[in-house]
């Protein structure tokens, strides 16, 4: 579309930037650098990035409802991050029988549950032992009860790309090496999934599906790793509606943000690029902003714990 503009807004290259979340009240962008083990917060008005370094890979971080700090999926542990104190408090461990696993992408559901999935550790980008991961959710419980982690299913290659339909009745999910976007019936009251189906299968030229987000029209935007693009998909028809290319190949995830949620932020990675690749892609690992899409997103849900 004419009028679409792509610009790098965070020039500090991430090894593997992931999980962008717009913090509306603060006007900041939360994201992680998985392999650098950093939770990052970008301030658009000053152009500065704050970081908190954790003792383990960081799959994702999400805001907490009515509380300061974040819930974080770090290593194979759900925990809470006190940003001011730079302190991570473990809450629930998963995959105890698979010490080589780690958390990857995650997001909060409309009821405040924190969903995140695991995967085997990579020997190179997207090269790993298959079917080692699972999808989990962290439920804060009620009446002050302890938070509990629930496994929803196993045998995942690379757990990625989560979001919910506008009516909360469908959960969208990506297993990257299945090259598929899945949909489940979702019971928002109980947090249970059922009736998995394929919404979209990715073509070879679209590369590896990674993180995704929903727009206010109910369409999905998917970042394609090694494809240097985000694509818009209609989950009702299974049709690709739009492609926006970026100046880097390893696009990893996306979210809507900005004052009216009309800006699409896209994270990327530089891990796995050799010297020649880095010379070709000097902005690899940056965070990008896409404007002029003519569609808005919605505010993210926050963890209720």
UniProtKB/TrEMBL annotation:
Binds 1 divalent metal cation per subunit. Pfam families: SGL. It catalyses: D-glucono-1,5-lactone + H2O = D-gluconate + H(+). Its cofactor is Mg(2+); Ca(2+); Zn(2+); Mn(2+). Keywords: Calcium, Cytoplasm, Hydrolase, Metal-binding, Zinc. It comes from the Eukaryota. It is found in: Cytoplasm. GO terms for cellular component: cytoplasm. GO terms for biological process: L-ascorbic acid biosynthetic process. Residues 16-269 form the SMP-30/Gluconolactonase/LRE-like region domain. Its main location: cytoplasm. PANTHER family: REGUCALCIN. Belongs to the SMP-30/CGR1 family. This is Regucalcin. It comes from Petromyzon marinus. The lineage of its organism: Eukaryota, Metazoa, Chordata, Craniata, Vertebrata. The gene is RGN.
